Amino acid sequence: MTMPVILFDGVCNFCNRTVNIILEHDKAANFQFAASQSIGGIGVLQKFKLNQTSAASVILIDNDKVYTKTDAVIQIATHMNGWPRLFIGLKFIPKFIRDFGYDLVAKNRYILFGKRETCRIPDESIRHRFLA
């Protein structure tokens, strides 16, 4: 079994902060990461026949199952320690409502949180957790 992979927008400041939170609260190191714009991320998108538009969402690939938007957030939260586990509670909100809120933030993420010029480059201590 391969490790679950989280695809994220590598130039989005909010997305990068979220990856930092996951790294901090994923004590068992359950996840690997890939920026959707990276070679590794593009390879995962192609393997699962996801288009670049899908990359506007956080994507979790776990046991060959694809989770997007709030479904991905909920699944990721199940592996977390500490306060990020609170996101599991989203499952009690109807999917169309929670995904509407997700889409609203995702659509405006660069305006609200800013954008980097280049994708994140992980330091040596966590580089093994990122797909090339």
What does this protein look like?
The protein has 132 residues and is of the alpha+beta class. Helices cover 37% and strands 12% of the residues. It is built from five helices and four strands. The longest helix is centred in the N-terminal third of the chain and has 13 residues.
Indicate the topology.
Elements: E1 5-8, H1 13-25, E2 32-35, H2 39-47, E3 59-62, E4 65-68, H3 69-77, H4 95-107, H5 109-113
Parallel strand pairs: 1-2
Antiparallel strand pairs: 1-3, 3-4
Low-confidence stretches: none
Instruction: Please tell me what the overall shape is.
Output: globular
Question: Nearest-angstrom radius of gyration?
Answer: 14 Å
Counted up, domains total 1
The biggest beta sheet is recorded as: 4 strands, mixed
Strand order of the largest sheet: 2-1-3-4
Order of helices and strands: EHEHEEHHH
Strand content: 5-15%
Number of strands: 4
Overall mean pLDDT: 91
Q: For the terminal residues, how far apart are their CA atoms?
A: 19 Å
Q: Determine the fraction of residues in helical runs and give it as a percent range.
A: 25-40%
User: Which structural category do the helix and sheet elements fall into?
Assistant: alpha+beta
Tally the helices: what do you get?
A: 5
